[in-house]
């Protein structure tokens, strides 16, 4: 299938799997739309996994490269396992090596039969399209696939965390830490507020944590903020940093928590909030400025929020967030009982005193 798409002008042919969904991407000339529909519908209806074991080996190697050999990958896997007790988000997306080693082609076909049904798929076509002709084409291809009932899936809901959780991961790399807080997911209003908090705290040299930890106090080599590990269910807001020189991780953690406490009592100034909104708006506009970016956004929000219009509403929601809402969110979520902290340190035999 890949070779056929490439021979017909296909570019950006790729696929990805995360906690919430598997996505397939391709950019094609508009006069190759029928070819795509025929290929994709046949794969949905009757897959032929002739390269299953070769691809399984690729996934196993990717796990070694992205998790087991990379400090941030190992740190995030540990963070998810510690922060969640009931949610399926506590498990790695591809499982562990032992899971992959035991996975058979029959397992994959059973999963495909249960989940790769028309009622469980969302597609977005973006570009030079004739709507009526495209609708007729989709009816001739995807519309002929018999409907199937989907398995009932009721993922466990993560209970409220009522005590701080901590873990230490030993890894031969520069010491770093991650601090995570449970948060609601879209379309909750607070999900938008955390978009603002991520930019305010960690995006660029003017962000609060970068200024405090990297520029002024020189405690950290870098800082970051992100939400993980998925978006369909309640998940985590994560702040992380790598220690600079001999500074202990406890000092780095304390400095981050100081900045979070300041958010609770000192309202964000209008000028700073305006700058954050502008950054968010610019980044959001860039993401949907290409056909592929727009298609990804439409499918993402339709699958996870149940409505692609979330994409169109995002800008107005961000513009309406106030300093008082940011302070309220900080007071609500940045509390010890909602906090999980993971330190990544060098193995003790090779660690320096300041890294322990």
- Rough shape? globular
Rg to the nearest angstrom? 23 Å
Total domain count = 2
The largest beta-sheet arranges its strands as 3-7-4-6-5
CATH class of the largest domain: Alpha Beta
Beta percentage is 5-15%
Mean pLDDT: 93
Helix share bin: 40-55%
Note the main sheet. 5 strands, mixed
Unreliable residue stretches = none
**Total strand count, please?**
7
Order of helices and strands: HEEHHHHHHEEHHEEHHHHHE
The third-level CATH topology of the largest domain is: Cytochrome Bc1 Complex, Chain A, domain 1
Helix run count: 14
Distance between the termini: 52 Å
Supply the CATH superfamily name of the largest domain.
Answer: Metalloenzyme, LuxS/M16 peptidase-like
Helices and strands: which structural class? Answer: alpha+beta
User: Mind telling me which CATH architecture of the largest domain this is?
Assistant: 2-Layer Sandwich
What are the main properties of this structure?
356 residues, alpha+beta, Cytochrome Bc1 Complex, Chain A, domain 1, 2 domains, two-stranded antiparallel ribbon, 14 helices
Describe the structure.
24% of the residues are buried. This protein is an alpha+beta fold. Helix 9 (208-216) crosses helix 10. The protein is globular and about 60 Å long. Strand 5 (220-228) and strand 6 (235-243) form a beta hairpin. The longest helix has 18 residues, at 270-287. The strands form two sheets. Strands 3-7-4-6-5 form a five-stranded mixed beta sheet, with helices on both faces. The protein has helices at 2-7, 33-45, 52-68, 71-83, 97-102, 105-115, 131-141, 189-202, 208-216, 249-265, 270-287, 291-304, 310-319, 323-333; strands spanning 11-17, 22-27, 165-170, 176-183, 220-228, 235-243, 339-345.
């Amino acid at each position: 299938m890949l070779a056929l798409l490439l021979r017909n002008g296909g570019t950006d042919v790729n696929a990805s799997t995360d906690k919430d969904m598997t996505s397939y991407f391709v950019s094609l000339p508009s006069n190759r739309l029928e070819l795509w529909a025929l290929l994709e519908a046949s794969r949905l209806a009757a897959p032929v996994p002739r390269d299953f074991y070769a691809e399984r080996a690729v996934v196993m190697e990717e796990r070694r490269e992205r998790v087991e050999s990379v400090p941030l990958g190992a740190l995030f896997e540990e963070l998810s396992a510690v922060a969640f007790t009931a949610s399926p988000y506590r498990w790695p997306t591809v499982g562990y090596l032992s899971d992959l080693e035991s996975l058979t082609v029959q397992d994959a076909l059973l999963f495909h039969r249960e989940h790769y049904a028309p009622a469980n798929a969302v597609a977005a076509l973006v570009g030079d399209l004739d709507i009526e002709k495209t609708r007729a084409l989709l009816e001739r291809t995807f519309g002929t696939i018999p409907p199937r009932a989907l398995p009932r899936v009721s993922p466990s809901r993560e209970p409220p965390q009522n005590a701080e959780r901590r873990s230490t991961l030993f890894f031969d790399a520069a010491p770093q830490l991650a601090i995570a807080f449970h948060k609601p997911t879209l379309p909750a209003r607070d999900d938008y507020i955390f978009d603002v908090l991520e930019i305010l705290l960690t995006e660029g040299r003017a962000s609060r944590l970068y200024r405090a930890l990297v520029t002024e106090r020189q405690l950290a080599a870098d800082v970051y903020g992100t939400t993980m590990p998925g978006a369909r269910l309640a998940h985590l807001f994560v702040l992380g940093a790598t220690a600079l020189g001999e500074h202990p991780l406890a000092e780095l953690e304390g400095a981050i928590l100081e900045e979070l406490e300041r958010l609770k009592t000192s309202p964000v100034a209008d000028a700073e909030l305006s700058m954050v909104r502008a950054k968010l708006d610019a980044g959001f506009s860039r993401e949907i400025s290409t056909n592929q970016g727009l298609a990804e956004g439409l499918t993402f929000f339709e699958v996870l929020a149940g409505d692609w219009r979330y994409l169109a509403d995002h800008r107005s929601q961000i513009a309406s967030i106030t300093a008082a809402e940011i302070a309220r969110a900080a007071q609500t979520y940045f509390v010890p009982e909602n906090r999980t902290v993971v330190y990544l340190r060098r193995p003790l035999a090779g660690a320096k005193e300041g890294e322990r």
